[in-house]
Amino acid sequence: MRVPEMRYIIARAASNPLDLMGFVSFQILHEETMDDDIMAQAAYCFELQLVPNARNQGLGEFLMQLLERIGSYWKMDKVMLTVFKANKGAIRFYMEKLGFTLDEISPGACLSALQARRFDYEILSKPCNP
Predict the structure, then answer these.
(1) Rg of the chain on CA atoms, in Å
(2) Rounded-to-integer distance, Cα 122 and Cα 124, Å
(3) What is the pLDDT along the chain (130 residues), one digit of tens a residue?
(4) Nearest to 27 by CA among 88, 98, 103, 82
(5) Helix (H/G/I), strand (E/B), else coil: 88
(6) What does the alpha-carbon distance between residue 36 and residue 3 come to, in Å, rounded to a whole number?
(7) May I ask the CATH class of domain 7-127?
(8) 63: helix, strand or coil
(9) For 128, which DSSP code?
(10) Nearest-angstrom CA–CA distance, 111 and 45
């Protein structure tokens, strides 16, 4: 949390601004692509954390939509994140609810199924709209 380039969007309760409900941390990065000559500009989500009573209320979706808007504003190519394969709830949230897909550099997208099984994570992304 002490990385100078890290940025945070912090959600507080409307009834009490001291009551923290969650946050999303992100950085603006240049990420590799499958083309060695091209780097993608990405708003990379490092963490999305919500207190238990703020979950399933739309707050996580709202925070990620804000990150998408930031990516669009700064003309990023995409929003990216890493998710553990074991975290089925997060995979459903990002892919089914928010429309993320496997990024081209994700193990599941660029390796054979046998090779991809060695990795415990996938990299997801979603294009930023202009």
Answers:
(1) 15
(2) 6
(3) 778 899 999 999 989 989 999 999 999 999 888 888 889 999 999 999 999 999 999 999 999 999 999 999 999 999 999 999 999 999 999 999 999 999 999 999 999 999 999 999 999 999 997 6
(4) 82
(5) helix
(6) 27
(7) alpha beta
(8) helix
(9) P
(10) 23
